[in-house]
Amino acid sequence: MTKNRKLIWRIYPSFLLIIVVSLISVTGYTSNSIRKFFLNQSEKDLKTQAFLIEDKVSALLSPLDPKAIKELCNSLGKAVVTRITVILPDGKVVGDSDENPDFMDNHKNRPEISEALKGGVGSSIRYSGTLSQNMMYVAIPVKSGDNIDAVIRTSVPITSIEDELNAILKERLFWGILTALLASILALILSRRITRPVEEMRIGAEHYARGDLNYYLPIPDTLELASLAESMNDMASQLENRIKTIVNQRNEYEAVLSSMIEGVIAVDTQERILSINQAAMEMLAIDSVNLKHQSIQEMIRNSELQKQVAVTLSKKAPLEQDITVHHDSDRVLNLKSLPLFNADNLNIGALLVLNDVTRLRLLEDIRKDFVANVSHELKTPLTTIKGFVETLINGSLTENPDESLRFMKIISRHVDRLNAIIEDLLSLARIEKLDEKIETRLEQKEIRNVIETAIQLLQSKADEKNISLELDCDAELKVKIDRTLLEQAIVNLLDNAVKYSNESSQVRIEVGTDHAEMFISIHDQGPGIHKKHLPRLFERFYRADKARSRELGGTGLGLAIVKHIAQLHSGRVSVHTVQGKGSTFSIHLPNA
Ligand code: ADP
Questions:
Q1: C-alpha of 27 from chain center
Q2: What is the pLDDT of residue 1?
Q3: Comparing C-alpha atoms, which of 491, 504, 500 is closest to residue 452?
Q4: Which of 12, 311, 494, 502 is deepest in the core (most CB within 10 A)?
Q5: If you take atom 4 of ligand 1, which residue's CA is the nearest one?
Q6: pLDDT tens digits along 390-405
Q7: Tell me: the pLDDT tens digits for 458-467?
């Protein structure tokens, strides 16, 4: 595995290597050239010196004057600081500026000498056994015609050249190191200049990775890096815009979801909750805050819902059913579930939509009961009427006039009953219709007046049973009412009180205020009502004592009408009763 290193530590050593290699090769090459130059120069000097003394030596060769040659070599050698040697063609040394020629070896085989003896200029660099040091030798032949009479050899110790070269090399080395140092500093600055923008981009990328998309990358002065930095800045701002859009969309989606009345739950194929809105949590009575990614089977303990989720996911088909949730009170929820598909038409889970239909179902039940009740209530007198009419048709009318008259009276009573039911039903329908425009019908009225009218209407009926009607009401008391409707409600309550009370009893009407309410209470001394009937007493057609009610011509709609009228006045009704002792029905109206 390659080790990750900083970019600068990849570039800088390369620069250094290039500098060092270039310096070494340049220094090596130039040193070599200088050395060559020096040696050539020295060789040329030696050759010149040899040629300069050629004539002098030639004069001493015929006849051969070894002594004079010896002296010449000594004097010349001292003058030019060059060793001068004269060698005869047989290799014998006859003169040498540095040594006694008598003690010197035969020089015939020295490479420069043998070259000169062939007629050319010989040269060589080698170790001198005589002087015990490296020497440069140049040898030229001394000719007379075609004959070679002797060889003049000039030589200098090579060490002096080497010393000079070394001095130059040392100087070069000093400047080389100085140049290398300067170059390495320059290389470092250059490397930093190259790597800094890249480093800045790395820092920028780290900011972006952390989500800090507002970070602005400085634009470097290099063309390629500048366009890269601009692209990265563009990318960051586009990314930020997209993220903002996504966040906004998610917020909108969540706002829509949480403000929906319908409960919405999305689950994945593993039955884990992807999202759930507030309405769904309330309907299912869940308080847990973090439901995301939790299993719906564990978090929502409702077997009907759990089963429907499983079936929807396995069948990938929509389903709908009403489920019951048992909490403080039972709630009926309509549960629609449908499979969720992504853009590639792959099933990614299911969507559940919950509607609280408790009230709707209750109303449906009430409606069904109402239709059944109306039918039943109407059918009973009709059946009776039909029976008596058929009997009359079959001959009773002519055969037995007294009986016929009795039958006709029964028929008439049942027709009245039918009439009463229809009247009450129409009243109810009218009151329900008034719901919207009641505000315009309400007027501030003295309540005593209204109650007195109702008493007048019931007085004769009360008198028949010797029931006294007593009123306890402040004459000044005013309240915002629809006079006709409230009168009807009071008549209904008074009618019931008279109807169900025993003879020679008392019915007392009391009007007063209690906190923010005004109440109209009708107390009777009748049979009272068993408490099991109380919750349903104000429903249409509900009767506590069916036989008695029918016998007394009741329709079962009187209290339902009272309740509706009270509600139209933004009020309510209540009943307080003790079996065998009497009942108190009250209308409570808000104090304007
Ligand atoms: P109905 O026409 O049968 O009187 P209501 O709606 O007026 O119908 O009353 C419903 C039932 O409540 C009656 O059938 C009766 O059993 C009972 N009820 C109403 N008022 C009284 C009362 N003052 N005393 C006893 N029972 C009453």
A1: 64
A2: 46
A3: 491
A4: 494
A5: 554
A6: 988 887 667 777 888 8
A7: 999 999 999 9
Cα 364 to ligand 1 centroid, rounded to whole Å? 25
**Hey, which of 495, 499, 500, 531 would you mutate to test ligand 1's pocket, going by the most ligand atoms within 8 Å of its Cβ?**
500
Q: Angle 329-335-339 (CA atoms, 0-180°, nearest 5)?
A: 150
Lining ligand 1 with CB less than 6 A are 496-497, 500, 524, 526-527, 529, 537, 542-545, 549, 554-560, 583
DSSP string, 313-344: HHHT--EEEEEEEESSSEEEEEEEEEEEE-TT
Query: Residue 47, Cβ neighbours under 10 Å: how many?
Result: 16
- Pocket probe for ligand 1: among 418, 557, 559, 581, the residue whose CB has the most ligand atoms within 8 Å is 559
Question: What domains lie within the chain, and their CATH numbers?
Answer: 12-164 (3.30.450.20), 260-356 (3.30.450.20), 362-431 (1.10.287.130), 437-590 (3.30.565.10)
* Pair of tokens at residue 171: 């100087």
- Distance of CA 235 from the midpoint of ligand 1 (Å): 80
Predicted local distance difference test score (pLDDT) of residue 132: 80
Q: Tokens at residue 157, please?
A: 């110790």
Q: Whose CA is nearest to atom 8 of ligand 1?
A: 556
- Ligand 1 atom nearest to CA at 540: 6
The answer to whether 302 and 384 have CB atoms below 8 angstroms apart is: no
Shortest-distance atom of ligand 1 to CA 497: 23
Please give the number of the atom of ligand 1 that sits closest to the Cα of 555. Answer: 2
* pLDDT tens per residue, range 170-185: 888 888 889 889 988 9
